[in-house]
Amino acid sequence: MRFISLALAALFAASAPVAAQDQIAREIERKARAGEADGGFCARASADLVRLTRQQAAERLNRVLARPDQQSASIVFVMADLPGGASACAYLAFRPVTTRDGKKCRPSESFLCIAGRDCRAKLDDAICEVRPGVWD
User: Fold this and answer.
1) Domain of 103, in residue numbers
2) How many domains does the chain have?
3) Model pTM?
């Protein structure tokens, strides 16, 4: 019985960060679609998100996009090295792979809240595989 209690506690502890990230992603998307001001949201949310440089984000993105072609993918994080020292909370959502000009591409939507500024969305974009396992 004690083992089951410990296992359940570990399960709930592990799912809490994922649930927090899902909630943050939904709010980034909502604010970006509405074109709202950040209003301090990114600063508050960043405590629950991984901080990535642009290089680290590109590396993580390549791993996320390596999923089977028919699967959707997403990533939510804080971009830590924007020009001028700004940071931004980002939520990127990718649909299953399609083909464009002979390349594998994932249609995507990008939602971004720049800390202390505004939130914006790019709803009709795609990221394509430039060589096996490398997306740009």
Assistant:
1) 2-135
2) 1
3) 0.82
